[in-house]
Design brief:
The complex is a heterodimer of chains A (about 300) and B (about 300). Chain A has helices at about 100-105, 145-155, 190-195, 215-225, 240-255; strands at about 1-15, 15-25, 35, 75-80, 80-85, 90-95, 115-120, 130-140, 160-165, 200-205, 210-215, 235-240, 260, 280, 290-295, 300. Chain A is an alpha/beta fold and about 300 residues long. In chain A, the strands form three sheets. A seven-stranded antiparallel beta sheet of chain A has the order 4-3-7-1-2-6-5. Chain A has a seven-stranded mixed beta sheet with strand order 11-10-9-8-12-13-16, sandwiched between helices. Chain B has helices spanning about 65-80, 95-105, 130, 135-145, 165-175, 210-230, 245-250, 260-265, 270-285, and strands at about 5-10, 30-35, 50-55, 55-60, 85-90, 110-115, 150-155, 180, 185-190, 190, 195, 205, 235, 255-260. In chain B, helix 5 (about 165-175) links the parallel strand 7 (about 150-155) and strand 8. Chains A and B meet through loops of A and strand 3, strand 4, helix 7, helix 8 and helix 9 of B.
């Protein structure tokens, strides 16, 4: 568990924020991993240690109960990037305001301190024998793809990003002004977060307000059609709404391309004890599947093993 | 039985201990209570299994566990390394299930006690149905009393009753060595947009700070009306998050306390709670936790 200082908490687009956290140190992380962020300030706690009490104030052991708008449990949020400076580590998290915890998070200010539990979960495996990767992100599933783009660039693998959002105003990324996303879905260096790792991106919107009009799986399929590379040299990574990931998984299955998915589940602990974030994963034993935990067995699973 | 300190884990919130090894040194505890063990492995309920509520959460895990055989083979060696007294929470759908698991645990040296889960609200059969009827509480406690010789017998009480002293009394009269209370409250959350229950199981058990005041009241009731006279210790639990929460339970009559849902948020809270209790004792010039138990000032 680590105490992080908020460096910035900036609105990116409708409902999405970029949170930058600075920590004196943080264990090694990999793309696909997540942290459990406490979406309330570390306890306004009166210390139980008498030595900690201010001289001018009497001991006060009755704590205020949690205010009703504060989240009790932590919130699992994937890492969107990481930077190691000489004397500190900076973690980037892009989140969407979707409930009590993230609504609170939207109000934190630079200088505020947050409790970070992590890093948690497995990571996207980087396949040495697959030098070309498609990164398919939908909505708030786009951020982990940014971290993955960085990881792939670091090992010299080529990657192409396919991003899908409901509407232009919900795109959690920075458009490069002289390079609008192509309406035919051809990937270009249009998104700053991916372009900085030399990864071209396609943007698809449900309402046609930006880039390709339709589902993100369509530009992905068109791009796959044009690839001359052997499917065994390709890998598709995806994170986003389940319907989108199902479509991506099905496309990959038909074309015999390895597909790795980062799944999302409600979770209490993130450490493998509460047993709440179960995913049905194919197994050889009866009845043909078993429950795996999204937090410690995942969040990344091979698409062929996931039973929807 | 004497513990190094009055802190334990609440069953189901700490797995089999190894899960938390990267996050906290559990040897800071006085005792460790495992997740429920049933004779055969159980996969548990469908997803979603939890939902946060204000100052708490609902869970309907459904007693997912590795089963007795895997527990003895794979988990006990890890638990032995903790060097703590281990209490195994035991569950089942019929009395024989409890008897089978408890009997097997008589041969495990590191296990010092068995906690009867007759209060799980999240399985279709067994569990809570044993725990809400005093006659059944007495019957199952009596059956286990015959099996538990080396191990102490702890009965975990359900709060889903009109008068918890009746089930407490039934357990004590049938030979329980200790009582733990409370388990979760049966509860429900509804997704109003979808007009469906949030949890796949429809209902779940409410835990967390939201239930603490009720738990404190129940511990106090059981202590004053049943346990004190019978000299049966109480393990108090329900929403403990800070040292003063634990102190409330001790003053209400608990001899030990268990930390549950708060571990999900911060496994290291056990250290703060333990140190906080120690500091409180020093400050009030109280020599032992025992002197605090039930030591509530009731005069005006």
């Amino acid at each position: 568990m680590f105490l992080a200082e908020v460096v910035a908490n900036t609105p990116l687009c409708g409902r999405h924020y970029l949170l930058r956290l600075a920590l004196p140190q943080f264990p090694p992380t990999a793309a696909g991993q997540f942290v459990q962020l406490q979406c309330r300030y570390p306890q306004p706690q009166v210390s139980m240690r008498e030595a900690d009490w201010p001289a001018d104030r009497p001991p006060r052991l009755n704590q205020p109960e949690l205010a009703d708008h504060e989240a009790f449990l932590r919130r699992p949020l994937s890492l969107a990037d990481r930077h190691d400076a000489g004397d500190h580590v900076e973690l980037e998290i892009i989140y969407r305001v979707s409930g009590t915890g993230t609504a609170w998070l939207a109000g934190v200010q630079p200088g505020d301190r947050l409790s970070v539990l992590g890093p948690l979960g497995n990571a996207f495996p980087i396949r040495a024998d697959k030098p070309l990767a498609a990164l398919v992100g939908g909505g708030v599933g786009i951020p982990p793809m940014i971290y993955l783009a960085r990881a792939l660039a670091a090992v010299g693998h080529a990657a192409i990003a396919f991003t899908g959002v409901r509407s232009a105003e919900f795109l959690p990324g920075t458009l490069i002004s002289d390079m609008p996303p192509r309406s035919d879905g051809t990937p270009t260096f249009c998104l700053g977060e991916f372009a900085r790792y030399a990864v071209p991106a396609a943007v698809a919107t449900d309402d046609g307000s930006l880039g390709f009009s339709g589902l993100v799986v369509q530009p992905l399929e068109r791009w796959l059609d044009r690839q001359r590379i052997d499917p065994s040299r390709l890998v598709v990574y995806s994170c986003g709404p389940e319907k989108m990931m199902q479509a991506v998984a099905e496309l990959c299955r038909r074309r015999d391309i390895e597909c790795l998915l980062s799944l999302e589940r409600h979770m209490a602990c993130g450490m493998g004890t509460c047993q709440s974030c179960v995913v049905k994963i194919r197994s050889d034993a009866e009845p043909g599947w078993s429950f795996k935990l999204c937090c410690t067995d995942g969040p990344v699973f091979n698409a062929r093993d996931v039973l929807w | 039985m004497k513990l190094a300190n009055p802190l334990m884990t609440a069953s189901g919130t700490c797995g089999y201990a190894s899960e938390y090894s990267d996050f906290v040194d559990l040897r800071q505890l006085g005792a460790f209570v495992t997740k429920s063990i049933t004779p055969a492995p159980r996969t548990g309920n469908e997803y979603p299994r939890i939902i946060e509520t204000r100052a708490g959460m609902l869970n309907a895990i459904g007693l997912a566990n590795v089963g007795l055989e895997a527990f003895l083979k794979d988990k006990v060696p890890l638990l032995r390394e903790l060097g703590l007294p281990i209490f195994v929470n035991v569950a089942g759908v019929k009395v024989e299930d409890y008897v089978q698991v408890a009997a097997a645990l008589e041969d495990v040296d590191v296990v010092r006690g068995v906690e009867l889960n007759i209060s799980c609200p999240n399985v279709k059969a067994g569990g809570i149905q044993f725990g809400t009827d005093p006659a059944q509480v007495g019957a199952i406690t009596g059956a286990l009393r015959k099996v538990c010789r080396k191990n102490i017998l702890i009965v975990k009480l359900s709060p889903n009753v009109t008068d918890i002293t009746t089930t407490a009394r039934a357990a004590v009269e049938a030979g329980a060595d200790a009582l733990s209370l409370i388990n979760t409250f049966t509860a429900m959350a509804i997704d109003v947009e979808r007009r469906r229950p949030v949890l796949a199981n429809a209902t779940g058990g409410l835990s967390g700070p939201a239930i603490r005041p009720i738990a404190v009241r129940m511990v106090h009731q059981v202590y004053t009306q049943v346990a004190r006279a019978a000299n049966v210790p109480i393990i108090g639990l329900g929403g403990i998050q800070y040292a003063q929460d634990a102190l409330e339970f001790l003053l209400a009559g608990a001899s030990a306390v268990a930390i549950g849902t708060a571990l999900f948020v911060d496994p290291r809270c056990i250290v703060d709670i333990r140190d906080g209790i120690a500091d409180y004792l020093r400050r009030h010039l109280i020599a032992r936790v025992r002197d605090l138990v039930g030591n509530l000032q009731t005069d005006a």
